[in-house]
From TrEMBL:
The chain crosses the membrane at residues 34-54, 261-286, 293-315. It comes from the Bacteria. This is PepSY-associated transmembrane protein. It comes from Archangium gephyra. Keywords: Membrane, Transmembrane, Transmembrane helix. InterPro entries: PepSY-ass_TM. The keyword Transmembrane helix applies. Residues 338-347 have a biased composition (Low complexity). Residues 323-347 are annotated as: Disordered.
Length: 347
């Protein structure tokens, strides 16, 4: 007797359903969202705290504040509040009287409220301190801040600090001279030869020892030839506020790979991951059906506030003759004011 059992062919593996694939993707998104937050925790902490310190530069600093009322400033200095609208009217009247603007006649726009932008800041050095006065021209009040300029422990200055060593063959002027004909030789039209940017002159960093075998950190500016430095074992007298804001403003990749290069890399990664967190957060929120209605209201409110506040801030930043940035730094310098005689003679 034979047992002829039916032969069953192996069942093919069931294909991955779209719902399962979606769950796997969202699981990967959640894990990435979480572990990147842990990995970039130091950078997020530094950028978050230092970003607030830009708005509160006196926090954690040795600063003594003193408020000066309008009556006090008036009695001590004779300063009176100055209305921005009054200044605007005087400017327009003087502009028309002097015949500037190629014969055009101007009048103040009544639909725009004239206002001040920026701060009226005055400074005076003292013994180990700086006195900083911020004046509000609208109401004639002021705030006087006295900020310590150094550490309570005196630091030995470098004996060579401020000295100038001339190396004409290695100076920035020598590089500028060699680059003068580069653009014409590349068939590139330019109004002037290439000029060195004095605000971004490179410096040579090195260490040297003196007769007492003390080690000095030395910087040599190739633009000015000026030397500066400090003892290698001495700690710069910078506050936590200053250190954090210096980290925040450190940008660009240096030519040599080092700690600053790696810092710039992680700053880029942090910026990209903030965008990723924002987008992935939307996906994770959408998975929780009970919160969708409240979430839609919150997102709508956020978008509305963002458009209004960001748009208004951009409008204020671009109010004047803002110059497009042409390279590293702040961009083109503001146009120079013309003498009154030249303004009258302008065609």
């Amino acid at each position: 007797m034979t047992n002829d059992l039916p032969v069953t062919s192996p069942q093919p593996e069931s294909p991955v359903r779209p719902q399962q694939r979606y769950q796997r993707v969202m699981k990967l998104v959640r894990r990435t969202h979480m572990y990147l937050g842990l990995l970039l925790f130091p950078w997020l902490l530094v950028f978050g705290v230092s970003g607030m310190l830009f708005n509160h530069p006196n926090f954690g600093e040795d600063v003594k504040m003193r408020a000066l009322s309008g009556e006090q400033l008036r009695s001590l200095t004779g300063l009176e509040p100055v209305d921005a609208g009054g200044i605007a009217r005087e400017v327009v009247t003087r502009l028309n009287a002097e015949g500037s603007g190629q014969g055009e006649r101007y009048q103040l726009d009544p639909g725009f409220a004239s206002r001040y932008s920026g701060f009226t800041v005055m400074m005076a050095p003292g013994e180990g301190v700086n006195h900083i006065l911020i004046v509000d021209l609208n109401d004639g009040t002021g705030t006087l801040a006295t900020r310590a300029t150094g550490s309570s422990q005196p630091r030995e200055p470098a004996p060579f600090s401020g000295e100038t060593v001339s190396l004409p063959e290695h100076s920035l002027a020598a590089v500028e001279s060699k680059m003068a004909q580069l653009l014409p030789k590349l068939d590139i039209q330019a109004k002037t030869p290439l000029r060195a940017n004095p605000r971004s002159a490179p410096e040579v960093r090195f260490r040297m020892t003196d007769a007492k075998d003390r080690v000095w950190n030395v910087t040599y500016n190739l633009g000015s030839g000026r030397l500066d430095g400090r003892l290698a074992e001495a700690t710069p007298a910078l506050s936590v506020n200053e250190l954090l804001t210096k980290l925040h403003t450190t940008h660009h990749y240096p030519l040599d790979v080092g700690f600053t290069w790696v810092w710039a890399l992680f700053a880029d990664i942090t910026g990209l991951m903030i965008v990723f967190w924002a987008v992935s957060g939307l996906f994770m929120w959408w998975q929780m059906k009970p919160t969708r209605v409240i979430g839609v209201a919150a997102i709508s409110l956020a978008l509305g506030l963002g458009l209004v506040i960001i748009g208004g801030t951009l409008a204020e930043l671009q109010f004047g003759n803002v110059q497009k940035r042409t390279g590293p730094g702040d961009g083109q310098p503001p146009p120079q004011a013309k003498p009154a005689q030249q303004a009258k003679a302008a065609p």
